[in-house]
Specification:
The protein is mainly α and 485 residues long. The protein has 25 helices and no strands. It comes from Alistipes dispar.
Amino acid sequence: MNAKRTEERLPSPWVSAVPLAVLTVLLYVVIRCFGGDAINGGSQIALLSAASVCVMLSIGIYRCRWAVLEEAIIDNIRASASAILILLLIGAIAGSWMVSGVVPTLICYGLHILHPSFFLVASCLICAGVSLMTGSSWTTIATIGVALMGIGQAMGFPEGWVAGAIISGAYFGDKISLLSDTTVLASSTVGVPVFTHIRYMLYTTVPSMLVALAVFAVAGLWLDHGTAEQTGLYADALRATFRISPWLLLVPLATGLLIARKLPAIVTLFAAAVFACVAMLAAQPGLVAQVAGVAETDFLSGFKGVLMTLFGPTSLATGSPVLDELVATRGMAGMLNTVWLIICAMCFGGVMTGSGMLRSLTAIFLRFVRRTFPAVASTVGAGIFFNLCTADQYISIILSGRLFRELYARRGLEERLLSRSVEDSATVCSVLVPWNSCGMTQATVLGVSTFVYMPYCVFNLVSPLMSLIVAAAGWKIRKNNNPVR
């Protein structure tokens, strides 16, 4: 009887959709006004405004108590606390791995594998490696991606193919990187340990990448091209700025060993930052002094330079504007906009959950989703839909994860299946939407229209299809014999 009354008190699905509609409209206006800078505050205000609409409807129409909504907000923010700490550590690693020379060493060695016949494959792999080590597809595309774009155009490759290879590699690395904010966000929103989430994604991500590499390999041999002499200039600029040494590869190697031992993500990330700080002082003392603003490094200036690299922005002169942007880092401070966005999104998700509106919307899906494949298909479809209507991948990830979490629990499906399905759609498809913040940013950075590069983003196009194929085959998908009722 109580369960029946609870169901009767659920808000109407039409009313529940109003906050989502308000959020969609506000985000559309915000994206039109601020473009790729919407994450700097506009999206957060849109989320809080939509949350206030949800609160007013809940209290005004359904007499929901504010204490219930407030408790739901607190629970949501409490659940995201570890994700926020991880994001801050990611910012510290991004700065320390760059200034220490770890990432420049990887880039420098990677540039040597470029050959005109395999340029597209090499570009995809280089961007994948850089994105994997930095955890940022945006940074990869805006830096080494821009360089590769110029090289590819100089070789005579069509701009759509070059942009597609760059974006495919960057989003592959971003998707499975421990340092990626979207990876951490997707896993934490659903409540899956980040290592478990990454390992489970490999079943769909690796096959999608192999398909992309095969397509780029054939295209590279088939398309006309010239020479790739320009790559040596970037390698020389990196060597002139950083001390490039294979010994620096011990830092990612040691980090990989910690990951293999399945230590907690926070412990691994903290250790990775410490390793890089030691390498920074040993291999790049001149750069540490430059960051600290002094001529020579002593104990105090070294300590200051290391801390500034960890928590704040750094800018190093390489003699190349493209590489200057590549080696520039933001540290922990660079993650604050994402942290702010997560907190605001958790407020929106909290009031939607506490008011029962999220459950009301989920009930619609529960009526039609009975098996694994429809559940995954609905999740993938929702991720793409939210990218279209909210124009932001972060919000799409959060909304998809929160919307389907209860549905998967009721159907006895694993949470890691949900987090993977969200990443296979909301994360990788965002760059394919022209009015999405990702699509607008990459089109502007690469100088190629979204509609031009879209057909050649093979990894991004194949990923949601691969998710559906794996779900249909039932590969590595287990069901809980005691689903939530």
